[in-house]
Amino acid sequence: MMLINKPPDIKSSEITPESVYRQRRLFMKSVAAGVAMLASPSLLAIPNYPKPGDRHYPGPEWLQQMIRQGSNERVFATDEPMTPYVDVTGHNNFYEFGIGKRDPLEHAQEFRTDPWKVEISGEVSKPGQYTLEDILKPHTLEERIYRLRCVEAWSMVIPWIGFPLGDLLKRFEPTGNAHYVEFVTLHDPEQMPGQRSSFSTIRWPYVEGLRMDEAMHPLTIMAVGVYGDALPPQNGAPLRLVVPWKYGFKSIKSIVAIRFHEQMPDTSWNLAAPNEYGFYANVNPQVNHPRWSQATERRLPSPFFNPNRIDTQLFNGYAEEVASLYQGMDLRQWF
Amino acid sequence: MVLSILSGQRWFGYLRWWLVFAGCLLPLGWMIWSAVNNRLGADPAQELVLLLGLWAMRFLWMTLAVTPLRQLLGWGWLQRFRRMLGLYALFYALLHLLAFLTFILGWRADLILVELSKRYYIVAGLAALILLIPLGITSTQGFQRRLKKNWIRLHRLSYLAAVLVLVHYLMQIRASYAEHLFYGMLLLLLLGYRVVKWQKKKNSKISATNG
After folding, report:
1. In a domain, A7, yes or no
2. Which of B42, B104, B106 is nearest residue A87 as measured by Cβ atoms?
């Protein structure tokens, strides 16, 4: 009952990570122990974490309801300590709202995320404009506690709320020519001060992309919430991608369009500095950024006298799940 | 009028000196206050290193602004603060490096070796700092007297240091270059002024010999 998102072409034994297996054991143990609380749905509900008074983003009523009805089976959860909520929502790279790490928190608070529409186009049988409600309706939200590794060599552990991207993409019935998926962030200079700057190295709107098999992978999710609440605007509300084995910039925020392509689409950072940022951007301690090492990372929050420096893991520690996607590929060439 | 009377007073000179001296410590005080009160965000180490570097650059630019401002605006009193500003540039630059080694690299020898040799922007910054050290040491009046004309020649290295600082800064451009452009233009003005002066001097010498 744990593998609700099993893809048809992979055996469950191949994709069940050890941590899930262990958690399943733990779960069964609790059943065996005859815990009476099992009957109550709260055991599997997404927890609503306590938050400081000035940081609370409940989101629209209907989304709150979906989150409360979500499941907390903790698929692919890491047991590393989570990065505190104030840091997850106060230290963001969202250049549409400024280049400082606190700029998104300070400049995104008036950002309108409801109502929201997403355009689906390209190599699909069911293109069109979908409201966020349409997008989310058939899916059960679940909590995924993932590591997030920024290309700038810092990292966090974040409890996202979302659903597998693959389940969403299948609904639009991609054609046989759909080899890549492109995502586009909202372009609205009136709301996004960063898009008004004449000195940006990034061309707006921000675009990202995935190969189809990466997009369909069960680890790849569309997130709508974090820490038991809706996504705050600075974290990419109302709809963002989370690809935990790639550098953070791949996990594009505030998505307004999903396009299916036969050819590899352009991606923003690759356009800005092709020698520094590749299309794949898989976390890899062996392949350094030209300007800094990727061998280690600082896990935030990083106190002064303990930089919290840890070794970076290949595919951000998700190698067991995703390494097969890149079999036979030279990861230095396809960085 | 009042100022010119005041500036003749010895006590006013002392007061002004101490005010400038204390004012230059304000950025550091503000950084320490912010760090202690958790105002530097989720990555305070990185923030502190960036702020120290930024202020080191600002003090170096201010040092280089003394001569043009004195000559263009006739602010002779500024001259007395040139050494202090230059030493503050060195002071903030040393703290910048120290904070980087301590708070970011945690004094891990393997990381330090790689960062200080292979990362070209760090190498450029380090080179600038190394250039500033002998300038700081020889900034005293004693050395000024002893080195005579060579003192000026030696301290022209600050131009090279400033260029290296700018390279160090420009090489870190990522999503936006607005501030980089601002500091780059300022340095262009500061060094451009000297080039123009030097050209004029050369021309007037030539015309003097011709005449």
Report:
1. no
2. B42
CA pair distance B123, A74, nearest whole angstrom: 45
ipTM: 0.85
A189: domain range?
61-326
Task: Name every chain A residue with its beta carbon within 8 A of the beta carbon of B44.
Answer: 301-304
* Residue B211 confidence (pLDDT) above 60: no
Mean pLDDT of chain A: 89
- Chain B residue nearest residue A204, CA to CA: B175
| A29, part of any domain | no
In angstroms, rounded to a whole number, what is the distance separating the alpha carbons of residues A124 and A172? 6
Give the orientation angle of helix B44-73 with respect to helix B157-170, to 10 degrees. 140
Q: Which of A206, A298, A306, A312 to mutate to test the interface with B (most CBs of B within 10 A)?
A: A298
Partner residue facing A200 (CB), from B35, B114, B175: B175
Q: HSE of A257 in the Cβ direction (CA atoms, 13 Å)?
A: 14
Which run of H or of E encompasses B117?
helix B109-118
Q: Look up the CATH number of the domain holding residue A289.
A: 3.90.420.10
**How many domains would you assign to chain A?**
1
Report the residue of chain B nearest A87, measured CA to CA.
B42
B175, closest residue in chain A (CA to CA): A201
pLDDT band at A23 (very low <50, low <70, confident <90, very high): low
A171 in reach of chain B (CB within 8 A): no
Q: For residue A227, with 0-12 CB atoms within 10 Å meaning exposed, 13-18 middle and 19 or more buried, which class applies?
A: buried
Residue A103 falls inside a structural domain: yes
Query: Looking at chain A, which residue has its C-alpha nearest residue B179?
Result: A199
Q: pLDDT-derived band of residue A11, with 50, 70 and 90 as boundaries?
A: low
Q: What is the pLDDT of residues A208-238, one digit of tens each?
A: 999 999 999 999 999 999 999 999 999 999 9
The residues in A 63-102 lying below 8 A from B, measured between CB atoms, are 83, 86-87, 90-91, 95, 99, 101-102
Q: How many CB pairs under 8 A join A and B?
A: 82
A31 is a domain residue = no
Q: What tokens appear for B122 in the block?
A: 């760090």
Which residue matches tokens 């038991």? A228
Mean pLDDT, range A175-186, rounded to an integer:
98
B42 close to A (CB below 8 A): yes
